[in-house]
Fold:
Amino acid sequence: MKRPAPIGLFRAAFVLLGKDLLIEWRTRARLNALVFFSLSTLLLFSFALGPDTKLLERNAGGYLWLAILFASTLSMGESFRIEYENACLDGLRLAPADARAIFLAKAMGNTLLLVALGGLLIPVMVALYGVKVVLGVGPLLATLALGCMALAAPGTVYAAIASNARARDVLLPLLLFPLIVPALLASAKAMMLVLQGDPMNQLNSWFGLLGGFNLIYWGLGFALFPRVIED
Amino acid sequence: MGKFLRMALPPIALGLLVTGHYIGLAVAPPDREMGDVQRIMYAHVPAVWIALMALTINFICSVVYLFKPSWKTDSLAEASAEVGLLFGTVGVLLGAIWGRPTWGVYWTWDPRLTTAAILLVSYMGYMALRRFVEDPEKRAVWSAVVGIIAAVDLPIIWYSVKWWRSLHQVQSSPKTVDPEMVLPLRISAFAFLAFMILFILHRYRIALHERQAEVALPDALPTDGPQANRTPGVV
Amino acid sequence: MQAPAPASPPAIALHDVSKRYGRHWALARLTYSLPPGRSLLLTGHNGSGKTTLLRLVATALSPTAGHIEVLGRNTVSDRDTVRQNIALLSHASFLYEDLTAQQNLTVLARLLGLPSPTDVANELLTRVGLTRRTQSPVRQFSAGMRKRLAIARLLMKAPSLALLDEPFGELDPSGIQAMETIIGELKASGVTVILATHLIEQGLSLCEERLHLSEGRAVAA
Structure:
């Protein structure tokens, strides 16, 4: 058999992304559990704070991001658990798949999952907290996408590390939470503007900030991830 | 050199600490607004500076390790992170003690304090990672990666917290420093620096010995004992 | 792949190779060269270093000291070229539990850039005798079926050097026979085989050379 030329970085990344999405689809029960987990997080915020709708509405942006953040530590850990089961990651490395393509695929997959989750939570917040999406769907999706990307890139690197260590369930949030404080601040702020209106036109500067974070996090992840998974 | 430093540094550090604090506590004038309380600055500010310096060493070691792996670099990274965490904790605690009489609260969400808190949690995570990974090689690589990401994140945290707070009213603390305050501050800073070098040296030796206990260091390749009849390539 | 020309480099060349896990030396100063066109049987007790050696040659691990050449290419500096030319059948199956047998193979085919991935996958599934349950997730497979699927994965890479770690483990007698046939076919098509197994008889009938490991060192069997 003739050996075809190895495929490029981005094509490999999309093949791997397709594989990850296929696995997610085939294990939708797990996905559903994740959705219900974040829904109950949202519900618990209202129990913890009491039925003060004004307070809930004012802070809805922050609660949404916390719900996404908690769910992300579960989903990103899971995305590497399937790779370490049967040493699939070794199988990919030896295929050979470029380690950077693996990073891009995992980070994109985690981003898509979190964006979809956020999209599902918004209508729930409209019902539970009485929020209105004042700025419309476009800025809402942009905020979700930028924020989830900023969570997913460092989360992917740290999930690859933590899934291989002892006490992995504690280690991932312990490493990730302080790191993504800036992204969380910016996304929560942007989300509040999206939900409550933006009279002073601040949204774009928060978007710029999030874009900058993403450049740094994705660049670092792209450069450092191969060292994490190669021996 | 290492041994000489370990012998000479403790008296130097102690001497500088005593001198600096004597001048700071007894000679320098009290702050016009804050009074004597302000004198905590002579310990608080150097502690924070030195913490940042130790964490910078950690960052440099992390980068160097990824390019040229060596147990010495890894040990120095571990030592500097731990010492940095120690000085950082001291700095934040002193800051909180200072804050109580000045601002009326131990804690405020001012950018400096917030950043310092996140920094401490970051490096606690770094230390936890080092404890939770058994394989020394993997531990070294992974903690180097985490060390780099944590350090790069630091200025980002600083600016984002500043931005975040800037939408509210931040209480500003005037930072006009009397020249008579500069001298004790400098001496204290050198005292803390001497302590940092001392602590890192000791911690580095312990870390290196730990590595030695975990792995046979690369120069200790297995040799052919009399019992192992090595016959390369024999069928 | 044709039979290598006389001037071709050794299939594998180990130069003073050591591998350490913690304080334990899994391989200690191993020097060995496998002539081109010959196949190698690795024997030794559990923990003697067979798996470590195969993983080192496969570039899944890097040696602590010394260096390895596979078909004349260094496993560290020229890693990607080596990876394109080898395939490893390891204890871990490299299979995704939640994907079907066919999907596991098509993903690899896409990654390798093969034309018509589904056809390639179906062809290989037939070759390893897995035609009935191609649409069931691997999670429902028995150990023997996983082994068959793993060998299909190896065949898809069309390697020049096939590294087989206990290929007969977990197989029933008919499976062992099928595996022997496949290894024979690999060799007939010019693939160099390195085989680690406890079934020394089967191994000796398939391989010309033998390397016996004990505590990470090569010793006379």
